[in-house]
């Protein structure tokens, strides 16, 4: 199935806003003006012609070029729906195998074109947008390379072509009794190669690990040849070259195959929602659980503001009121912090862990373990992005940003992130809320969502986004967070990546990229800018 | 306390061979001739003079130079004890702080000298030996930089100067209620910086993680400046530069400070020994436990040959016989495989895990859980290297090698490793045995010990070692193992590292090293050879 060309996901699936949403939005953001959506035909007629010719490997058809030129960031949506595509890729290729991929690298050299590797096109930071390199651009969609190549049940390893999307990957594994367990929110459309290239993290990374722990080795086609990284359970033989491919964002080459660590399908999987009297109490509880021998499969702690917003959207006012009365009776106040949590494994493990988690929650004043709300989360776990379309149709713009930081910075950082948004466009009504979605012994991630109403033109809406993004990103860096926990760097985070990393780390990365791609032919302008290759090293 | 200059560890500690050992050794290897030990004074009189002058930062005293010129490999012992030091470092420095370290880098540039970073000198693969670079050599001992700098209890992070030895590190942490939990066999003498530079793995890595998981960030002084890597709980902002420092073996620069992930001291820690009727049954049991939600703190599975040898050395013949009778009664045969295992954590965790582990062991035909043998292992966990001296005194040479591989290769690889030794010097009596000491879902490590008798001259003994080492290393590579799971590459594994890693991985590493160290001034000749710096990238 082909996804919507100018928004998120399946064309057959809509997620209308709950009927309670209207009043919440109007109350907090005022009424808004409908936002436009240009037709694909009209847009195709207006884009600049390709600088390349059709060939066996390349298509230059305008509609295809448009579809593969933007990701899922808010500026991407604005550009696609207003029809303000500054740049469109010159051609799209759909290689069927490594041989064709190799031919594309040679063709790019012959044509002096640059290549943009394209997984599922779900980037929210501009990974796959044509940049300002003057050379023609070929976007390489990996969607036809989606097969399970081999499986080693004893070592629990599976080798895939890297273009495989989440559901296809899981289906091929599930048929043999296995799972990878990597479920980012973009799961339904994103690809294995994309996860690796952008250091993705799944919702249950607490159990299964981030993609860093799952990616065991593979093959990357670079302009200088094939970079093969063999797979060992562990090794002390020098720096780990997998870690260079992870997060390489297409700058080194194109990941063609990847070996991943899989597990037998779990016997049982359960999700619950519990509530804490405060954000601080919830933070202390999840921190202590992350630092102990407690094995949940996920923790997602919503700040009281997010908790209230989510409950307002999920429940009819009457039901919400009853729940709030219950909160009061349980000593949670009327603005508790919701913790969604899960256990995954065999029955005994789930039982033991569930008991241990409930005990810890109780020790921090937390109450309840509502399976119904846990199930609600599970059934909607990949659904949130569809809400953006429903909001768009009502004239509201929504975006998110995220980070990870050490525990000793989290409370202040969360406040600063939200404060920075409030200060960024003081004239614009804005609502925002935050949750924590990944925990580690050392710290956790923070994920902030913000909404603002349409104020008319493309430029006005984009400028507002730029102001919000700039303020929030700077708050992240100033507060000791990384510019991204799970979305990568791409174009949008590049200036902050350059603030975050030390000078010698950047120069080393630049030198390494230049070694593999001396002509800066691979996804130039993403991740890191500086790359005057032959001179720098 | 200063360690023995020409062997392992403390001068005040001896570990005599058990009285049963004589007959075991004579029976399997024949009698042997005593091995020599030259006096330090005599050796100091014979080494070539230093090419550098004494200064505030450098000492060129011959005895000091000798002490810091060799590690703990068998060829190192042969060279030190026979007095056959081909090369001795020209000077040794003992920087007190980062400023002095920086001065040493500048001094090396002025003198056109090369630098060898020196942690605890416990390398068994030639990491700290002066190589064949024609320039004078300065060995930089980090032993004075051994302080805990800061601790963040909330994020469970501690920052240390990198020259801190294991016991000093644990003492400084224990005083505040924390532990790093990194206990390689070399723990008592090796250093934090050395662990990082060589990708070390501790005996309880199953609980605490390898040094890769413990090292959170730090500072490395390179010839081009200070490379700072900040510490985040996780990040998707580009390739992880920590992973370049890990395993860099001094080739990038000198690690001056490191932040590590610590944990509160565990409530409880227990070790047991169980027995399986066969190696295969033991392998299946530990593999399945590593692939399930079972949380031991260590597994060490001895092959039946190692089990028998260890029991023969640990027990008087009468006691051994009684134990073997018990094995028979329990259906274990007379050559079972011993599994030493541990649990670490709070009481409840230990109780639950102990129960789960015993159940799994039983399901694979395993029997017993002898705390006495577990305690024996615990009390001797750092003692094995002292046995080398006792063997030396009786005229027997001992060495080990190790690897890690996927589960589907383990059985054959273990056989091939031992077979390769048997074939290497068919005229030399040799005994060998193997254990598995680290398990992962994907595979495990294998660790083989071999002994052979002294046959006279330095050259004859060294040649035999070379033949054994070559045969074993090639068997590892041919059998799909990594050339090292926990000892690193150094000089001795370099040819096999070059076989193990793909061409483009090697060229990329070479280019990256050249970026930070264009003059090849940092520990040249270790890890990877090729480094014609400015031209290659």
TrEMBL record, chains A, B:
Pfam families tied to this protein: FAD-oxidase_C, FAD_binding_4
Transmembrane segments: none
Cofactor: FAD
Binding site for FAD: 117-123, 249-255
Site-annotated residues for Important for enzyme activity: 300
InterPro entries membership: Alkyl-DHAP_Synthase, FAD-bd_oxidored_4_C, FAD-bd_PCMH, FAD-bd_PCMH-like_sf, FAD-bd_PCMH_sub1, FAD-bd_PCMH_sub2, FAD-linked_Oxase-like_C, Oxid_FAD_bind_N
Swiss-Prot/TrEMBL keywords: FAD, Flavoprotein
Binding-site positions, substrate: 388
Residues forming the catalytic site: 447 (proton donor/acceptor)
One of the GO biological process terms: lipid biosynthetic process
Molecular function terms from GO: alkylglycerone-phosphate synthase activity; FAD binding
Domain FAD-binding PCMH-type positions: 85-265
Keyword Glycoprotein: no
Database matches in PANTHER family: ALKYLDIHYDROXYACETONEPHOSPHATE SYNTHASE, PEROXISOMAL
UniProt record similarity statement: Belongs to the FAD-binding oxidoreductase/transferase type 4 family.
Name by which UniProt lists this protein: FAD-binding oxidoreductase
Natural source organism: Ferrimonas aestuarii
């Amino acid at each position: 199935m082909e996804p919507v060309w100018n928004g998120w996901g399946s064309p057959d699936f809509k997620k209308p806003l709950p009927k309670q949403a209207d009043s919440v939005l109007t109350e907090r953001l005022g009424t808004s003006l409908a936002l436009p959506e240009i037709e694909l035909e009209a847009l195709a007629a207006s884009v600049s012609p390709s600088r390349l010719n059709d060939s066996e490997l390349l298509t230059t058809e305008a509609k295809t070029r448009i579809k593969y030129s933007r990701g899922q960031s808010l500026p991407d949506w604005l550009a696609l729906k207003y029809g303000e595509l500054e740049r469109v890729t010159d051609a799209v290729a759909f290689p069927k195998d490594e041989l064709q991929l190799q031919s594309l690298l040679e063709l790019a050299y012959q044509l002096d074109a640059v290549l943009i590797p394209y997984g599922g096109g779900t980037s929210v930071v501009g990974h796959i947008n044509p940049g300002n390199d003057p050379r023609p651009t070929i976007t390489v969609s990996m969607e036809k390379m989606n097969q399970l190549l081999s499986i080693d049940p004893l070592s629990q390893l599976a080798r895939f072509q890297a273009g495989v999307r989440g559901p296809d990957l899981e289906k091929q594994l599930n048929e043999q009794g296995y799972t990878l367990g990597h479920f980012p929110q973009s799961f339904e459309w994103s690809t294995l190669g994309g996860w690796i290239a952008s250091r993705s993290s799944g919702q249950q990374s607490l159990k299964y690990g981030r993609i860093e722990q799952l990616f065991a080795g593979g093959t990357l086609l670079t302009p200088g040849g094939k970079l093969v990284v063999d797979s060992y359970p562990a090794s002390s033989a020098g720096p780990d070259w997998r870690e260079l491919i992870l997060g390489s964002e297409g700058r080194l080459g194109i990941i063609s195959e990847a070996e991943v660590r899989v597990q037998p399908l779990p016997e049982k999987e359960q999700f619950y929602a519990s509530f804490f009297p405060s954000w601080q109490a919830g933070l202390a509880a999840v921190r202590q659980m992350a630092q102990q021998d407690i094995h949940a499969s996920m923790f997602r702690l919503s700040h009281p503001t997010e908790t209230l917003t989510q409950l307002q959207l999920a429940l009819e006012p009457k039901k919400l009121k009853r729940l709030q009365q219950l909160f009061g009776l349980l000593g949670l106040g009327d603005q508790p912090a919701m913790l969604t949590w899960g256990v995954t494994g065999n029955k005994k493990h789930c039982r033991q862990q569930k008991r241990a988690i409930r005990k810890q929650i109780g020790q921090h004043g937390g109450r309840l373990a509502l399976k119904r709300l846990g199930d609600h989360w599970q059934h909607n776990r990949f659904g949130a992005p569809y809400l953006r379309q429903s909001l768009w149709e009502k004239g509201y713009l929504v975006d998110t940003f995220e980070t990870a930081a050490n525990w000793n910075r989290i409370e202040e950082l969360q406040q600063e992130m939200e404060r920075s948004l409030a200060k960024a466009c003081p004239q614009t009504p804005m609502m925002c809320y935050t949750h924590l979605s990944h925990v580690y012994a050392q710290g956790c991630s923070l994920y902030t969502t913000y909404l603002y109403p349409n104020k008319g033109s493309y430029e006005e809406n984009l400028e507002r986004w730029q102001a919000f993004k700039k303020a929030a990103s700077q708050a992240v860096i100033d507060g000791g967070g990384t510019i991204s926990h799970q979305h990568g760097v791409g174009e949008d985070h590049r200036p902050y990546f350059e603030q975050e990393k030390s000078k010698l780390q950047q120069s080393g990365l630049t030198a390494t990229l230049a070694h593999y791609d001396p002509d800066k032919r691979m996804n130039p302008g993403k991740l890191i800018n500086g790359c005057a290759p032959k001179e720098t090293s």
